[in-house]
């Protein structure tokens, strides 16, 4: 049933930063289905802010893991830096407590916000460039390098056969006899 909202009614806004698991949302959306449940935007209703859809058809199994875990393989473990990892005062030389607290706060705020600003400005262009590079490399590998290698292997099949014969006739008997000669040697190490 649809109800009209007056303009004077306060609107409650909830912001999900992805730092907590929303078990009720997961239970409502997946409801014991083996396959991921696909929802239309109109069916999401009040939960539209929590699940940002790129297309009208949303696969929730793809979106939820990206919000919670953005580095699942630990590629950037070296970038988990806190203030104490960068700046540390020994016991003999110390600044005032308020200076230390404000320095810590400013460090964290600056680190977070500069990263956010730079990602807003550069994340999309860098992702497009890297996507183009990987697409070009994939194209070259699939359509040029791999067929070229197979072509060379087909052309040089006679050379491979000749090399196999040379190894079987000339090298293998020599190495086999040398292995049998050295097979009887035993080394025993003792401590005296």
Key structural traits:
192 residues, mainly alpha, two-stranded antiparallel ribbon, 6 helices, 2 strands, flat, disordered N terminus, transmembrane, transmembrane helix
Nutshell version of this structure?
The chain is mainly alpha-helical. It has helices spanning 23-30, 41-44, 60-68, 83-86, 97-155, 157-183, and strands at residues 38-40, 57-59. Its main location: membrane.
Account of the 3D structure:
The chain is mainly alpha-helical and 192 residues long. It has a domain of 58 residues. 58% of the residues lie in helices and 3% in strands. It contains six helices and two strands; from the N terminus they run H-E-H-E-H-H-H-H. The chain starts with 22 loop residues before the first helix and ends in a 9-residue tail after the last helix. The N terminus is likely disordered. Its main location: membrane. It is a peripheral membrane protein. This is Caveolin.
């Amino acid at each position: 049933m649809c109800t009209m909202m007056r303009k004077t009614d306060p609107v409650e806004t909830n912001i999900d930063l992805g730092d907590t698991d929303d078990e009720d949302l997961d239970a409502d959306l997946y409801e014991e289905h083996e396959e991921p449940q696909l929802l239309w935007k109109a069916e999401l209703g009040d939960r539209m802010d929590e699940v940002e859809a790129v297309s009208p058809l949303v696969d929730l199994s793809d979106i939820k893991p990206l919000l919670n875990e953005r580095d699942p393989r630990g590629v950037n473990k070296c970038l988990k830096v806190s203030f104490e990892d960068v700046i540390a005062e020994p016991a003999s030389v110390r600044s005032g407590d308020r200076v230390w607290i404000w320095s810590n706060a400013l460090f964290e705020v600056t680190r977070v916000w500069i990263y956010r600003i730079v990602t807003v400005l550069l994340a999309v262009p860098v992702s497009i460039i890297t996507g183009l590079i990987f697409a070009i490399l994939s194209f070259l590998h699939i359509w040029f390098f791999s067929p070229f290698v197979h072509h060379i292997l087909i052309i040089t099949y006679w050379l491979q056969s000749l090399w196999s014969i040379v190894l079987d006739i000339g090298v293998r008997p020599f190495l086999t006899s040398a292995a049998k000669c050295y097979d009887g040697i035993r080394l025993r190490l003792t401590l005296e």
